[in-house]
TrEMBL record:
PANTHER family: GENERAL STRESS PROTEIN 16O, RNA POLYMERASE-BINDING TRANSCRIPTION FACTOR DKSA-RELATED. This is DnaK suppressor protein. One of its GO terms (molecular function) is zinc ion binding. SUPFAM superfamilies: DnaK suppressor protein DksA, alpha-hairpin domain, Glucocorticoid receptor-like (DNA-binding domain). The gene is dksA_1.
Length: 127
């Protein structure tokens, strides 16, 4: 049995992934801009912003911005890996068990690298 997606499904996946990558890059630009603003603010503000009652501290905003940047970078890496799988013919096949990933899962998460069963097993296993 051939588990490969047909050419039209692969093209649709390529397009969805491309759109997702463009959106992720826009988010990355936004987060990067925020990080640069915070870097500039940190250079201009006194070192002790922890006692400012007027809102969140620069340190907490910096931490949040860095975390957001990491999430976006991870999403871009997942999308790039999925695009590579499209090109080498492995897209739509679970990287753990080799079975097809359901079309519903791929529609919901085009960068999915595992089938739902393997994803569930991985989320339950201790790290």
């Amino acid at each position: 049995m051939d588990d490969a997606l047909d050419p039209s499904a692969l093209q649709a996946a390529r397009e969805r992934l491309g759109e997702a990558r463009e959106e992720a890059l826009r988010r990355w630009d936004s987060v990067q801009s925020r990080v640069e603003d915070l870097r500039r603010d940190r250079a201009e503000e006194p070192a002790d912003d922890e006692h400012d009652p007027d809102g969140p501290t620069l340190s907490s905003e910096w931490t949040m911005a860095e975390a957001q940047r990491g999430v976006v970078e991870s999403a871009i890496a997942e999308i790039d890996a999925a695009l590579a799988r499209v090109e080498d013919g492995r897209y739509g096949l679970c990287l753990r068990c080799g079975r097809p990933i359901s079309p519903e899962r791929l529609a919901a998460r085009p960068s999915a690298a595992t089938c739902l069963d393997c994803a569930r097993r991985a989320s339950r296993s201790p790290r």
